[in-house]
């Protein structure tokens, strides 16, 4: 697979030949003299800078925009936006959770008054999910603060939990906020969704602008429903080719981050298109967008299509309108990938861009395995893990293997959905036969650390291979999917 980004300061494409090996931990580039003929290997070109067009006297000028620019233009009631502009955006959904919610509420009350009301009680979604199943009094108090605030403000969407002994006794409790937002119908094409969590970008899978914000910004949104945002330029990633059965969307995003580095998309939108992306399920698209923040991205976005609309059919009754990048839209850079040639990847310590082939790490010994989080705790992630166990021919795990379903729905699926090719066995049955830990209560679990009694938390130095793994031999070797949340 080849990919590159070539910056152009003139309307003409530079005659440079850029080659990149798809399966090497060390990217290698070769530059040829600019006087030579243009090589067909050039696969990405930054759109040339053009002088500003003056408005026509006979009417408004229609200038091409990217998806992200269109969404922000509509939400700021502007006819056109360009990267770098600062605009006041109307927020469609604000999400917060038990870690950042109390701080955001405190700022809201300090700045708007103790008796102030939120701008719209039906556009605020509050989801306890991080430090839930713990005896830590301060962590428990955070949830109490959320509950008191929601009662005071009559918040419509508060997914509460009171009985910590049995999560199933709490019908309103969901689990990991990013997965719950999708499952409960809060993600819709064309909208602006902000959340007090860096992985709010997950919702970009639905063709919307979704990004994480801090407590101060969230406090302001609580009172006004608006936020000042700078329009990001867009990087476009075109992924084509039939996706091999042994690959997951996590491999795709690790390949991309390995290409552009952890800072390669800093304050940029990352737009994912191509036949491979179109073939992905919604959960896999969520994985793709979830990790754009690991490349510094402001947001990730996938164009809405029939897969999106089918997923939303029974989840929301709120009307929405999808937008798409114009054919002549200008992208800062474009990267192209032939996914049919990609191999399973890992991110070695201590960075998501420390990319390596899984087979290169077959001799790495590990102490434990963790399958879960907003990236790897969805239903399809557990089904994929179960298939690997089936393919192992009955091998047992050699290290403690922790399972943390993202939400109540995922937990139910783990115990009820038959795994294809298993003769009717569920994921939970397959995991039990392989010697894994019993699936835990749905939450963020050990992903963010948390109190010392948090399930699967490491309280001593260990080599933990997290998120979704076990994609090769079930021995005392393992593979790292990412050491970051």
TrEMBL record:
One GO term of the biological process aspect: oxoacid metabolic process
Key words of the record: Iron, Iron-sulfur, Lyase, Metal-binding
Domain of life: Eukaryota
Alphabetical list of InterPro entries matching this protein: Acnase/IPM_dHydase_lsu_aba_1/3, Acoase/IPM_deHydtase_lsu_aba, Aconitase_4Fe-4S_dom, IPM_dehydratase_rel_enz
Keyword Lyase included in the entry's annotation: yes
A Pfam family annotated for this UniProt entry: Aconitase
Gene3D superfamilies: Aconitase, domain 3
UniProt-recorded Gene Ontology molecular function terms: iron-sulfur cluster binding; lyase activity; metal ion binding
Coiled coil: none
Aconitase/3-isopropylmalate dehydratase large subunit alpha/beta/alpha domain mapped to chain residues: 86-456
Name of protein: Aconitase/3-isopropylmalate dehydratase large subunit alpha/beta/alpha domain-containing protein
Source species of the chain: Camellia sinensis var. sinensis (China tea)
């Amino acid at each position: 697979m080849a990919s590159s980004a070539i910056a152009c300061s003139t309307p003409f494409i530079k005659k440079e030949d850029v080659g990149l090996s798809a399966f090497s931990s060390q990217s290698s580039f070769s530059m040829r003299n600019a006087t030579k003929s243009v090589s067909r290997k050039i696969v990405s070109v930054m759109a040339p800078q053009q002088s500003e067009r003056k408005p026509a006297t006979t009417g408004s000028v229609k200038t091409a925009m990217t998806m992200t620019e269109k969404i922000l233009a509509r939400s700021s009631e502007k006819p056109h936006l360009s990267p770098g502009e600062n605009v006041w955006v109307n927020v469609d959904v604000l999400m917060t959770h038990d870690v950042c919610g109390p701080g955001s509420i405190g700022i809201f009350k300090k700045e708007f008054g103790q008796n102030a009301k939120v701008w719209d009680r039906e556009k605020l979604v509050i989801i306890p999910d991080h430090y839930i199943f713990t005896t830590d009094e301060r962590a428990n108090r955070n949830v109490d603060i959320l509950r008191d605030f929601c009662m005071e403000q009559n918040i419509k969407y508060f997914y509460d939990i009171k009985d910590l002994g049995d999560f199933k006794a709490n019908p309103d409790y969901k689990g990991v906020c990013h997965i719950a937002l999708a499952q409960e119908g809060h993600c819709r094409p064309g909208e602006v969704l902000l959340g007090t969590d860096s992985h709010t970008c997950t919702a970009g899978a639905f063709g919307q602008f979704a990004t994480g914000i801090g407590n101060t910004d969230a406090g302001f949104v609580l009172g006004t429903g608006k936020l000042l945002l700078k329009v990001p330029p867009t990087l476009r990633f075109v992924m084509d080719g039939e996706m091999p059965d042994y690959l997951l969307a996590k491999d795709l995003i690790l390949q991309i981050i390995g290409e552009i580095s952890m800072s390669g998309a800093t304050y940029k939108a990352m737009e994912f298109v191509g036949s491979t992306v179109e073939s992905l399920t919604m959960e896999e698209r969520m994985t793709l967008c979830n990790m754009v923040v690991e490349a510094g991205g402001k947001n990730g976005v996938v164009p809405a299509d029939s897969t999106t609309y089918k997923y939303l059919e029974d989840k929301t009754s709120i009307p929405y309108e999808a937008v798409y990048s114009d054919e002549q839209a200008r992208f800062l850079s474009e990267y192209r990938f032939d996914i049919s040639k990609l191999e399973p990847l890992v991110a070695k310590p201590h960075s998501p861009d420390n990319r390596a082939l899984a087979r290169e790490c077959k001799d790495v010994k590990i102490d434990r395995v963790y399958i879960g989080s907003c990236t790897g705790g969805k239903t399809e992630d557990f089904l994929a893990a179960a298939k690997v166990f089936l393919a192992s021919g009955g091998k047992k795990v050699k290290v403690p293997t922790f399972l943390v379903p993202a939400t109540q729905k995922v937990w139910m699926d783990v115990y009820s959905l038959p795994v294809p090719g298993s003769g009717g066995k569920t994921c939970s049955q397959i995991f039990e036969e392989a010697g894994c830990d019993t699936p835990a209560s749905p939450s963020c679990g050990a992903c963010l650390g948390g109190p010392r009694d948090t399930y699967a938390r490491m309280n001593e130095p260990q080599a933990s291979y997290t998120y979704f793994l076990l994609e090769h031999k079930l021995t005392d070797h393992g593979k790292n999917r990412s050491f970051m949340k």
